[in-house]
From TrEMBL:
This is Proline--tRNA ligase. It catalyses: tRNA(Pro) + L-proline + ATP = L-prolyl-tRNA(Pro) + AMP + diphosphate. The gene is proS. Residues 48-467 form the Aminoacyl-transfer RNA synthetases class-II family profile domain. Homodimer. The lineage of its organism: Bacteria, Bacillati, Bacillota, Bacilli, Lactobacillales. NCBIfam families: PRK09194.1, proS_fam_II.
Length: 568
C-alpha cells in the first residue's frame, strides 16, 4: 500500500483539549478525527486495527460456539419499558421519536432485543444453549465525553448473550467466555486484570470485569500481589475493628461556626478526624415510596454507595438534597448527626463504629456539634454493615496488602439469570413439558476502547507502538529520498518481496524530507521499519524495531529471514 494514497493526516502538535496520551497520539498519527463532541471517525489506519481486533474476537468466539448476527441500532422503546430500563437507565439513553410520534432509542446495549428474538424463536429446551453475539456501534449520551474515543457518545462494541435451560448451562458458557476474553486480551497485547465487579444497571448476581491499568482509567482497582483484584465499588478488606475502652463522658454541645467538613470539625473540637462521626443523609426510593436513611461513618472513611445500595435494596438511592436534609433533620450538611433522630429515619452505621466511644457528631443545628456521643445512650443504630471504601495497605481477603491503580474497563461478563427473560416472557418447555424462564448471561468488549487502552499502555513520547497482532501494517518501508531513483525502485521491489512473504507493508512513497518521514513513522507506530538509504548501492538496508528502538544493517537477500527472526 502506497502511503501517498492513504488518508493519513499526521500533526506535529496534539489538540489543546487532549489530556490522555492515547487521545494525543491517535489524533496526531492520523488514526481518528473528531466530528463532534464524543463522536469520532475512524480513519483508515484505525479501521485496519479495528478489523484485526474483530478478527481475533471472531476466532475466539468460534472456539466457544458463539454465533455472530446483527440487530438494529434503532430500537422501539416498548421493550425497554417492559424491562423497566427506559426510565431507570438514566440520561445516557438516547431517546427519539419517528414521524408517527412513536418512541425510539439508540441502542446502548441489546439485552431486550436479543431476548425478544429468542423468545419468539425458541420454544423448547432442546434448542438451548445458545450463544449469540454481534459487533456493532452503541450509543450513550455521555454528559462529559473525554479522552478521545475512550469515553464517547458512539462506540464500537462486541456484545454477546447466552441463553440456557438451566444454571449449569449458564455456568458453562460463562466460564467459556471468561477464557475466550482472556485469550482475546492476551492476543491483542494488553496488560489487564480480571476483577470482581458490580453488575450495576445490567442486573444479575455475578460478574467479572476485565480492566487495563492506565493513569486515565475511570475505575479504581484494588488488587494485591496475590490472587485478589476488585473494583473499588465492591472491594473488601479484612475487618480489624477496635474496641475503645474509655468511660463514656457527658454529652456536650459545642459551637463550631464555619466547620462544615470533618477536618474542620475535628480542628474546632481538637479531636482526631477518626473520632468525628460523619453523618450523611440518603433517600432510598422504590416506586412511589421514599425513605430517609442516615449513614454513619468514621470521619476519615468514605461511603461506598454501591455497597450501601445493595444493602438497602431500593430501586434508587441518592444523597438527599439540601432542602430534603433540612426538612428531615433540621440542619444543613456539615452539621448532621444521629442524636435525637426519630424512628422515621433508618440509621445505618459502618461496622468500624461499633466499638467506638465518645465520638463527636453534628448536632442537627447549623454551626454546632456534640462531643462524647455514645451509641444506645445518645443515639440508636438500626443496622451495622460494611458501607465504606477500602484503603490502600489494608489486608485483602487473600491476606495480602491492597494496592490501588486506575484502570480502563475493556470487557465485562455477567450472569443475568432471569432478569430479562422473566420481564419479557422468554420461556421454554422443559423435559417435563412445563414452562420455565430462560437463564441468561451477557458479555461485552469495548472494541474502540481497546484502541485507547493499547495506546495508553504502549505509546511513548514519539508516538504509537502497536503490537504486531493488531498493527495496521506489519512493516513500514521508507526510501530516505523519494527523488533518488535507485532508492525508490529498490523500496518498491522490497515491498513486493515482503508482501509475497505474507507481510502487510506500507510504502512511504511521498516526496518528503527523510526527517518528516521518520517522525511520521514513529507516530504511526508500525512494528518494523525498513529504511532504504545511501547503503542501497551495497545491497544494505536498515531495519529498526519500533518497540525496542534496536536497529540493524541487513543485506536485502537476508531481509525476510531477519524480520522472521525478530518476530520469533
Amino acid at each position: 500500500m502506497k502511503q501517498s494514497r492513504m488518508l493519513l493526516p499526521t500533526l506535529k502538535e496534539a489538540p489543546s483539549d487532549a489530556e490522555a496520551l492515547s487521545h494525543q497520539m491517535m489524533v496526531r498519527a492520523g488514526y481518528i478525527y473528531q466530528v463532534s463532541a464524543g463522536v469520532w471517525a475512524y480513519l483508515p489506519l484505525a479501521d485496519r486495527v479495528l478489523k484485526k481486533i474483530n478478527q481475533i474476537i471472531r476466532e475466539e468466539m468460534d472456539k466457544v460456539n458463539g454465533v455472530e448476527m446483527m440487530t438494529p441500532m434503532v430500537l422501539p422503546a416498548e421493550l425497554w419499558q417492559e424491562s423497566n430500563r427506559y426510565e431507570s437507565y438514566g440520561p445516557n439513553l438516547f431517546k427519539l421519536k419517528d414521524r408517527k410520534d412513536r418512541d425510539l432509542i439508540l441502542g446502548p446495549t441489546h439485552e431486550e432485543t436479543m431476548t425478544e428474538i429468542v423468545r419468539d424463536s425458541i420454544k423448547s429446551y432442546k434448542k438451548l444453549p445458545l450463544l449469540l453475539y454481534q459487533i456493532q456501534d452503541k450509543f450513550r449520551d455521555e454528559d462529559r465525553p473525554r479522552y478521545g474515543i475512550l469515553r464517547g457518545k458512539e462506540f464500537l462494541m462486541q456484545d454477546a448473550y447466552s441463553f440456557s435451560a438451566d444454571q449449569a448451562g449458564l455456568d458453562a458458557i460463562y466460564d467459556d467466555m471468561a477464557v475466550a476474553y482472556r485469550n482475546i486480551f492476551d492476543r491483542v497485547g494488553l496488560n489487564y486484570k480480571v476483577i470482581y465487579a458490580d453488575s450495576g444497571a445490567m442486573g444479575g448476581n455475578g460478574s467479572q470485569e476485565f480492566s487495563a491499568p492506565a493513569p486515565v482509567g475511570e475505575d479504581t482497582i484494588a488488587y494485591t500481589d496475590g490472587d485478589y483484584a476488585a473494583n473499588i465499588e465492591i472491594a473488601e478488606s479484612q475487618f480489624v475493628g477496635e474496641q475503645q475502652t474509655a468511660t463514656p463522658a457527658d454529652l456536650t454541645k459545642q459551637a463550631t461556626p464555619g466547620a462544615h467538613s470533618v477536618d474542620e470539625a475535628a480542628a474546632a473540637l481538637d479531636l482526631p478526624a477518626s473520632q468525628v462521626m460523619k453523618s450523611m443523609l440518603y433517600m432510598a426510593e422504590t416506586g412511589d415510596d421514599k425513605q430517609a436513611i442516615l449513614v454513619l461513618m468514621r470521619g476519615n472513611d468514605e461511603v461506598n454507595e454501591v455497597k450501601l445500595s445493595k444493602h438497602v435494596a431500593a430501586d434508587e438511592i441518592r444523597l438527599a438534597t439540601e432542602e430534603e436534609t433540612v426538612a428531615v433533620l433540621g440542619a444543613n450538611p456539615g452539621s448532621l448527626g444521629p442524636v435525637g433522630v426519630g424512628e422515621e429515619v433508618r440509621i445505618l452505621a459502618d461496622r468500624y463504629l461499633e466499638g467506638m466511644v465518645n465520638l463527636a457528631a453534628g448536632a442537627n443545628e447549623d454551626g454546632f456539634h456534640y462531643i462524647n456521643v455514645n451509641r444506645d445512650r445518645d443515639f440508636r443504630v438500626d443496622e451495622f454493615g460494611d458501607f465504606r471504601n477500602v484503603k490502600e495497605g489494608e489486608l485483602a481477603p487473600d491476606g495480602k496488602p491492597l494496592k490501588f491503580t486506575r484502570g480502563i474497563e475493556i470487557g465485562h461478563i455477567f450472569k443475568l439469570g432471569t432478569r430479562y427473560s422473566e420481564s419479557l416472557g422468554a420461556k421454554v418447555l422443559d423435559q417435563n413439558g412445563r414452562e420455565q424462564d430462560i437463564i441468561m448471561g451477557c458479555y461485552g468488549i469495548g472494541i474502540s476502547r481497546l484502541l485507547s487502552a493499547i495506546a495508553e499502555q504502549t505509546a511513548d513520547e514519539h508516538g504509537l507502538v502497536w503490537p504486531k497482532a493488531v498493527a495496521p501494517f506489519d512493516i513500514h518501508v521508507i526510501p530516505a529520498n523519494a527523488k533518488n531513483e535507485e532508492q525508490m525502485s529498490n523500496a518498491e521491489a522490497i515491498t513486493k518481496t515482503l508482501e509475497a512473504a505474507g507481510y502487510e507493508v506500507l510504502l512511504d512513497d511521498r516526496k518528503e524530507r527523510a526527517g518528516v518521514k521518520f517522525a511520521d513513522s514513529d507516530l504511526i507506530g508500525l512494528p518494523i521499519r525498513v529504511t532504504v538509504g545511501k547503503m542501497i548501492g551495497d545491497g544494505i538496508v536498515e531495519v529498526k524495531v519500533r518497540q525496542s528502538g534496536e536497529s540493524f544493517d541487513v543485506a536485502i537477500d537476508d531481509l525476510v529471514a531477519k524480520i522472521e527472526s525478530l518476530e520469533a
